[in-house]
Amino acid sequence: MATQSITLTINGESRTAEVEDRLLLVHLIRDNCALTGTHIGCDTTHCGACTVLLDGTAVKSCTVFAVQANGREVTTIEGMEGETLHPLQEGFMEEHGLQCGFCTPGMIMSSKHLLDHNPNPTEDEIRWGISGNLCRCTGYQNIVKAVQHASNKLQETTEEGGE
Amino acid sequence: MSKCKTSPEVGGMGHSIKRKEDPRFIRGQGNYVDDVVRPGMVFMDIVRSPYAHAKIKSINTEKALAHPGVAAVITGETLKEYNLHMMPTLMSDTQMVLPIDKVCYQAQEVAAVVATDRYSAADGVELVEVEYEPLPVVVDPHKATDPDAPIIRDDKEGQENNHIFHWEAGDKGETEEIFNNADVTVKEDIYLPRIHVASIETCGCVSEFDSVTGRLTVWLTTQAPHAIRTVVALVAGHVGLQEDKIRIISPDIGGGFGGKVPVYPGYVIAIAASVVTGLPIKWIEDRRENLQADSFARDYHMTCEIAADKDGTLNGLRIKTLADHGYADAAANPSKFPAGMFSICTGSYDFKKAFVEVDGVYTNKPPGGIAYRCSFRVTEAVHAIERMVDVVADEIGMDAAEIRMNNFIPKDAFPYQSPMGWEYDSGDYHGALKLAMDKIGYDELLKEQAEKREKGELMGIGISSFTEVVGAGPSKDFDILGIKMFDSSEIRIHPTGKVIARFGTKSQGQGHETTYAQIIAEELGIPHSDVTVEEGDTDTAPYGLGTYASRSTPTAGAAAAVACRKIKDKSQKIAAHLLEVAEEDLEWEVGKFSVKGVPDKSVTIQEVAFAAYTNHPQGLEAGLEATHYYDPPNMTYPFGSYIAVVDIDPDTGEVKIRRFVAVDDCGNIINPMIVDGQIHGGLAQGVAPALFEEISYDDEGNITGGSFMEYLVPTAMEVPHFETDKTITPSPHHPLGAKGVGESPTVGAPPAIANAVVDALSHLGVRHIDIPITPEKVWRAINKQNAA
Amino acid sequence: MIPGSFNYHAPSSLDEAIKLLEDLGEDAKILAGGHSLIPMMKLRLAEPDHLVDINGLSDLDYIREDVGVLCIGAMARESALEKSELIAEKYPILKDTSEVIADPLVRNLATVGGNIAHGDPANDHPATMVALDAEVVVRGPGGLLDSGGRTIAIDDFFRGPLMTALAENEILTEIRVPCPNGKSGAAYKKLERKVGDYAIAGAAAVLNFDGDTCSKAGIALTNVGPTPVRASEAQDALVGTSVSQDDADKAGELAAAASQPVGDHRGSEEYKRAVVKVLTSRAIMKAKERAAGGN
User: Fold this and answer.
1) Per-residue pLDDT for B371 more than 90?
2) Contact with chain B for residue A8, Cβ under 8 A
3) Of A34, A59, A79, which closes a domain?
4) Could you confirm whether B374 is annotated as catalytic?
């Protein structure tokens, strides 16, 4: 059984682990690091429940090996809040963008990537941006509103900060 | 919308209170079954059959057991020692936990590997060697009862063929009379294919047995924890698991929709393994296992007929159905209803007579017929009637809205006795359809369609005016495995006026932590933020039948209201004691008792609560709490009208939903925001089978649709923006006038879309297309008509 | 869900990667974006003993124009192609193509090189590259970094389903697309059952004009044959015409006749041919529109 030692940063914290070469990143996150906010919903890279940021880019962590994350930065849902909740987290609560909550962490991470690259998306662009994440409960409509809420909030903050 | 009785701070009915459960989910702090970790926990994975029907010649576990990390391999023979290799289904059929002699569907559980970690367990599964001898398969249900069909359930004594049940409702003779004398009769074969709930969280459990105390604790993805506890006690009682020593914990559930009601073999194997090994065992199925082996929904082959007058008056309805149940009837129907509530199929229309018959058959497919967000076969019934009403309209050249308006049960006819024996509680079908038509601009759309047809462009408008029947159900008619379908609420007010409320239901995203708190806020005037709601732990929650079939609000919500009223009655006694007046001299205004005519002489409910522990009247019991087990007097009947507009690409057959208007009536509304969310989600789960989803099998019983590669769950790009609205027609028998809503949209949406597509093509002579309406089906329908 | 065991190698240079491939032989596979390979490994349909991760070869991640040619480094991510201004302006057919590959999350990691090297006729870039008369640059153990490797014309690259001209010890390093020359336009049209799915069929059309007359045409098809299908007769039929709707429809019919679809859960053979016809015609008309200055 091939293993190696890897060191990566997860939510700002450095972690070292001895892992099998074949260990999936999502299992490293959930099992080794006990960060269970990232979820597993399928086995064919479709559902996106496992979405995390890898060096700031949204990826499906079930289709990345943990060893590939060696020396890199991973952000999970647990790393989204600072002293206050991230506007996306607020937006999902304000706009009823979740019901069972299982797809929600992945949706939020994908939406973070979307807003980082497109701060003021249209409804179509939001739907396009989250088309790698499946939800069974909400019909996506309030998820779109949640992302719009966050987009507005972030732009207000930018305007205030930017002067 | 009627004015709310309570303030937003109190947050009773009608307020869109933000959900109390959200803070943990948006931070990734939910507690789902796969998040549960127990000391010493090991992992289980399952070996599954590649064949749909095959004898098991041998199972060789040597290589698997030699693999590092593998602790045990469990087979049917292992379980047989404990008489646990078979179990009852919720419909009192039997199914294998693990097989001894043969397998009956592709992906059936054959053996289980227990290992120290997930990866070793998966490796172990690859190393178990099973020798099969394939047997002839039964895949087409129409051939299941052919004389030469192989008998699938030869394990059942007296089972000489593949027929499971025959069930009828309505009046056969009188319905036939109507057909014989009808001006117009129409007939269509309608197939609702097999689909799957595919909630984003798959099923699984963590089972832990304490050999010192004899207590079994199982964290389980279940919508009905108490029922599971009782089933486990009945099935495994003989190995010493008695019901007071079994604790089922249903933690956060990532979507249920009916798929987490059945008892799956994986659970029973894990429980057995945890008892035998003494180790906590985690089993979490992967998505392919979930799609290929867990209980499916629908799979109804219906031959539908309507008898009508020339003017479109609908007189008689007749449906003959062949129900494909897979290899076991594991449907989660109430026991007297092997075809669920299928006889609601006269729908929103005032038929004179109707007759339905359903024959269930065995095939070599996974077991089931679960209620997938459809209140027990109501999707099937509504799809049939809404399609057939359009077929009649097409036959006589009448507008689809007009034929409905002419045949709706009028508002003043409620309570209404349907020809099938249902007593509909209340409805205003004309109101809902009119609102939907106004909202979508029906007449302008008809004009647009006419203009487009001139140019060869294809556009369709489809209506679905459904009536649902939910809230199972009254004890005189409904039980599952003999357990009556009441539900319960236990409410306790603490000295400082805060509340703990526990229920026999189990939310999988419906927002009970919020909505039940709102019911209590409405009844007692205690702010919703002072109410903690708990569900899902059988050690603490009162007994209930769980959450599915839109039953929570109609049953447990009612229980909460009644329990609150018991508390209010007692509170009145305490208030009278505190204010030194007679009870009759008090009046109640939300949260407060005051003396009639002397409004400043009052006590709040919080003061009453404190007094219940510190200054209760002599002769009255201390404390302030109540439990109620609510036996609903009737089902409730939410309804609505949906209108879909579609545009079709004539060259590729692609269907785009341009607009979708949904008018729903679920009676009085607890939380409008949550109701809207339920409707959006249900509509998406109606769009999905209408256009995308299907599980099918080839002639050898191999599945298509066994992963998300082929089982096409729609993304945000396929689901349209929904325009929702409401009418409110309270239920006269429900304590809150509420009806339940979660399933209406899944029931009502598919026929609206199917009707729209057929409408787009009707001028080409197309009368019916089965769902899922793929682009190829549309293309074929167009080209067939063009060639003809 | 759980892949089989393997040994992981993460070379930091192209030479190192090639040496690894040579030493490890047929039991080694390249890991680029990984979104074709890892899903197969999780289903245990692929069980390589060794993975050579080339994500560290960041000098293969570029999109730039050289004289007369667009050079796409094999490790350029699909999302980069999708968002590139250069691509949107001058090579919109590549944007058409990348944006319909899988979903946005997959595109963040999936590479252009991988989409081509995998040799799957269901992938979208192969047909587009055929229509564009692209070539691929490949490095093997014989070639040092400055020796240029070997160049393979796209028509010689795809040999069969999941089979390409790449030798076991070779890595695809660059894709070269001729710059648009004179009045030209190109487009890719794909019909999929839902976002994220492979194509029911796809059609790429690249047109060059001399004035209003078509002087050259490239038409190629996705997922209707064991390799991407170049519809040569359709191409020939367009040359010398003004590419009217009738010309486009006729070319569509010829493309449908040239395709070799197999009936499966995405559609019957008959339907797929009909889709080829429609998409080819639409791709042609879109290409013509772009040649005339539209977007």
Assistant:
1) no
2) no
3) A79
4) yes
Which domain, by its residues, includes A62? Answer: 3-79
Same structural domain, A58 and A112:
no
User: Is residue A24 helix, strand or coil?
Assistant: strand
Burial class (CB in 10 A: 0-12, 13-18, 19+), C141: middle
Query: Phi, psi at residue B22, to the nearest 5°?
Result: -65, -40
Please state whether the predicted TM-score (pTM) of the whole model is above 0.95.
yes
Cβ of B652 under 8 Å from any chain C Cβ? Answer: yes
- Please list the residues that pair with A17 across neighbouring strands: A6
* Residues A32 and A94 both lie in one domain: no
- Cβ–Cβ pairs < 8 A, chains B and C: 46
Annotation marks residue B81 as catalytic = no
Contacts of B710 in chain C (CB under 8 A): 265
Return the HEC string of B80-100: HCCCCCEEECCCCCEEECCCC
CB-based contact B692 C1, cutoff 8 Å: no
Nearest to C267 among B692, B714, B776 (CB): B776
**Does the pLDDT at position B156 exceed 50?**
yes
Q: Are B503 and B548 in contact (CB under 8 A)?
A: no
Pair (A72, A107) in one structural domain: no
Q: How large is the ipTM?
A: 0.97
Q: Which alpha helices (H) appear in chain C, and where do they start and end?
A: 14-24, 37-42, 78-83, 85-90, 92-98, 104-109, 112-117, 125-131, 154-157, 232-238, 245-258, 269-291
| A91 and A66 inside one domain | no
Q: CATH for C183-291?
A: 3.30.390.50
Identified catalytic residue from B223, B292, B518, B685: B223
> What's the sign of the alpha-carbon dihedral A23, A24, A26, A27?
negative
Which of the residue ranges B47-51, B700-704, C23-27, C148-152 would you say has the lowest mean pLDDT?
A: C148-152
CB contact under 8 A, B776 and C193: no
Q: Do B252 and A100 touch (CB under 8 A)?
A: yes
C282 to chain B: nearest residue by CA?
B651
Q: What is the CATH number of the domain that holds A142?
A: 1.10.150.120
Fold classified for C60-178? 3.30.465
Residue type at position C178? P
What digits encode the pLDDT tens for the residues C173-219?
A: 999 999 998 999 999 999 999 999 999 999 999 999 999 999 999 99
To the query of whether residue B508 is one of the catalytic residues in this protein, the response is no
Give the CATH number of the domain where residue A26 resides.
3.10.20.30
- At residue C143, does pLDDT exceed 70? no
Hey, is the C-beta of B777 within 8 angstroms of any chain C C-beta? no
- Do A18 and A75 share a structural domain? yes
Cβ within 8 Å, pair B712-C191: no
Nearest to B394 by CA among B755, B754, B55: B755
Q: Active-site residue B395, yes or no?
A: no
Confirm or reject contact between C267 and chain B (CB < 8 A): yes
* pLDDT score recorded for residue A163: 44
